[in-house]
Write a structure and sequence with these properties.
Length: 120
């Protein structure tokens, strides 16, 4: 069985978040799926400010919405200069048989995603 790499897990999370954003009626101005490059999505919707979406995939399916507050403060400063809002998408993905095991390609997994947290 082949284990999903960190980048593959990130891409899976990006797809989950992206589909949800499309359902919400947002257009993508920019998409960046490179690990540790933020934001992942820059959104546009007529009549609304620009929104930067930060996506973080974690093996923690109990509290995937937790993030590093200091890191987020730095990003919020950047967003303020751009007159943009910041949303955070914490996405928990874990092996469905055991959270102790890695996530394997083409095997079931748990998904914990409760939508977007407005940070700014």
């Amino acid at each position: 069985m082949e284990v999903l790499t960190e980048q593959e897990l990130h891409n899976l999370g990006m797809n989950i978040a992206g589909k949800e954003l499309q359902k919400m009626g947002y257009e993508f101005v920019a998409v960046n799926s490179t690990l540790k490059k933020h934001p992942q999505f820059v959104l546009f919707k007529k009549g609304e400010p620009t929104i930067f979406v930060l996506v973080k995939v974690t093996g923690n399916i109990q509290t995937p919405q937790e993030y590093d507050v200091l890191w987020m403060e730095t990003f919020k400063e950047h967003a303020k200069k751009q007159n943009a809002k910041v949303w955070f998408a914490g996405i928990g993905i874990a092996n469905a048989e055991s959270t102790e095991l890695p996530v394997f390609k083409n095997k079931p997994y748990y998904l914990a995603f409760e939508g977007f947290t407005e940070v700014l």
